[in-house]
Amino acid sequence: MYTSRGEDFQRDEAIRNASLSAMLFMLAAKDKGWDTCPMIGFDPDKVREILNIDEQYEIALMITIGKEKVSSRPPRGYRKPVTEFVTYVE
Ligand SMILES: Cc1cc2nc3c(=O)[nH]c(=O)nc-3n(C[C@H](O)[C@H](O)[C@H](O)COP(=O)(O)O)c2cc1C
């Protein structure tokens, strides 16, 4: 199925799967006392070169990991309540 649907579909699917894994990684890290941030603001070609990543792999995102400096935490902006954009259907 993946080969017959073309390269765009394969790339989309790689990013879908990587994003699910990334989310799980971030939640697991939090559970172990670490803080993380997903990032896309980097040069993927440079990262590929530096880390010697083969062309067959798609670079979906980068995750920073460390300990949050709580003292410089900015005030949280407004976040929509989940009920505003999720509907449960029985
Ligand atoms: C897909 C995605 C990509 C992001 N890329 C960057 C990035 O390149 N640089 C950056 O400073 N923050 C980036 N962010 C935002 C940070 O990961 C983080 O969410 C933000 O600093 C707010 O942190 P907070 O949610 O803990 O307040 C990105 C967020 C997402 C969801």
TrEMBL record:
A Pfam family reported for this protein in Swiss-Prot or TrEMBL: Nitroreductase
Source organism superkingdom: Bacteria
InterPro entries: Nitroreductase, Nitroreductase-like
SUPFAM superfamilies: FMN-dependent nitroreductase-like (SSF55469)
Span of domain Nitroreductase: 4-67
Keywords per UniProt: Oxidoreductase
Family named by the database record: Belongs to the nitroreductase family.
The protein, known as: Nitroreductase domain-containing protein
Organism of this sequence: Pallidibacillus pasinlerensis
